[in-house]
Amino acid sequence: MKIIDTFKKIFSKIPTTGWLLGIFVAVVLEYYLGDIISYYLYLPKIPAIFGTLIMFKKPLMIPSVIAYDFIIYILPIFIVGKFFAPLTNNLALMFEKMPLWISTILHLCLLYGAMHIWAEISDYRVLILKLTMISIILTISINIINGYQGEFSCSHPGFMALGAYSSSTLTLLLFTNDKLFGTALLPSFLGPWLFPVTLIFGGIVAAIGSLIVAIPSFRTRGDYLAIISLAFMFIVKSAIENLEILGGPRGMSSQPDYASLPVVFCWMVMAIWIIHNFVTSIMGKALNAVRDNEPAADSMTVNTRKTKMTAFMFGAFWAGIAGGLFAHVLRYINPGTFGIQKLAEILAMVYFGGLNSIYGSIVGAVSISLLGEALRPFELFKWIVIPLILIIIMIVRPYGLISFKELNIKKLLGSRDKPKNQGVK
Question: CA nearest 393: which of 371, 419, 415, 423?
Fold first, then answer.
């Protein structure tokens, strides 16, 4: 316990700026010296995901991987965080004097810079980063329904499929010479500029599709939403499989490469910001009231049906956005992608990270995504390990690791070493 308290005392004084600078220094060190360090540690190449894949494939390389992670990541981050804490706290104090939006943008630029350098080492890292950021959007969007609304929905893969196929159809129809849709209707150079429009179109289609679930479900009580939403997921999957114009069971391919790393990053940031504003707004507070006690909320003039319908459509909209990004990252989709396995993955993320918490959604999405990739060599065995971890978390913390915690940007980006006379007049 004393060791844990000592670490808490050391790291509690490091602001977010210090952590980001430490991460930035670490990834720059890996970019320039990763090959040399991995060579002298007898590693075949620079580890892709912190060496987890190498450790599982070749257990004898575990000491080398641990040494690599310590030299490249842990040591630089610790040195910058611990020994430059006074400097980074002064920087954080300077940022606090700026408008909050400027401070936030500066921190986001530093975060993106670190991610970009880390991803430059291999295309595999770029793909993992993109898919992880899409998972964050998915997890936050389902948390609106399963967390803030207090329902249990299983329809997110269906919403994701609607968004993926709608946005893919629009980009292929408008900007690509494709075997399914023929000659492009618009010049291809307009594609990247109009890509946000196609994503929003996919989100709108998903939101409209959510009414098929919401209208009958919210007239009932109990577990009917879970049953209807699960049926909706299978209906969407079966309908796409039987639509030859969308490729049928073969799927749809040749989507333009519009979902670059900065594009996906920007959409993830927008999703976090907009959803945070939604759940902390009057509508979000009404949603919490409906979750806690619907009859009491109704008696306090809250339009419970409208509140639930709005939140459900809002969550479906962002699932459709995530589906569109997913389709243009992989550049291939098929109906089997949006089945029960995708549902299990999304539910694992949201319940592992924590309900009613954007922090928890981010932690859950990143943790399960990286764990899934680390366990990829075990193929189906990973679907034994991940549920076991989830069961343990549910026993220890029934609402997830970080639940019911609001996202406070001002506090997150603030200094950890306040002057003693601050606030005293």
Answer: 371
Q: What is the pTM of this model?
A: 0.92
Q: Return the exposure string of 47-86: e unless at least 16 CB atoms fall within 10 Å of the residue's CB, then b.
A: bbbebbbbbeeeeebeebbebbbebbbeebbbebbeebbe
CB-based contact 335:97 (threshold 8 Å): no
Q: Name residue 253's beta-bridge partners.
A: 332
What domain range includes position 61? 2-118
Q: Quick one: tokens of 160?
A: 């994701």
Tell me which of 118, 147, 176 is where a domain ends: 118
Q: Which residue is it, tokens 């319908």?
A: 309
| Whether residue 151 sits in one domain with residue 68 | no
Residues 29 and 128 reside in one and the same domain: no
Cβ–Cβ under 8 Å, residues 81 and 22: yes
- My answer on whether 237 and 301 are in the same domain is yes
Residue 418 is assigned to a structural domain of this protein: no
Is residue 165 classed as helix, strand or coil in its secondary structure? Answer: helix
Residues 97 and 207 in one domain: no
**C-beta neighbour count of 183 within 10 angstroms:** 8
Question: What total of structural domains would you count in the chain?
Answer: 2
Predicted confidence (pLDDT) per residue in 159-211, tens digit: 999 999 999 999 999 888 877 777 888 888 898 999 999 999 999 999 999 99
